Amino acid sequence: MTDTIVLPTVATRPERPACQPAVPRSQNVTQPAKTQPDRWTPDLIRDEVRRRHLSLRGIALAAGLHEAACRQALHGINRKGADALAEALNIPFDKLFPDGFVQSRRQASVKQLAESRQKRAAPTDKIAARA
Length: 131
Known about the structure:
mainly alpha, about 45% helix
């Protein structure tokens, strides 16, 4: 007597046609967000960079800048990094960074230091003090 072995049938997934893209065009990552915020914050900019599968370091290096340039741009220090971010995200610079930039850390700290010194009085005050 011969025993017949019956194997369970395994359901297979239907094959996707070769011409159909893996990601629908409506979810294309290179497209800008449909609803852009009124005010961009550093966290929102980072989120948008990640949403497009980019990195701050990659954007900076692609623009020929130091790898920290875009990270510094989020803090208002590196203008070239900010330009690279605006170009990579395809968002106008003045919309992405409406507050503007400090030229450098040194210039910002020197200006604050000069304003805080008491000896730095206006020339008219020095003349009036001598009289």
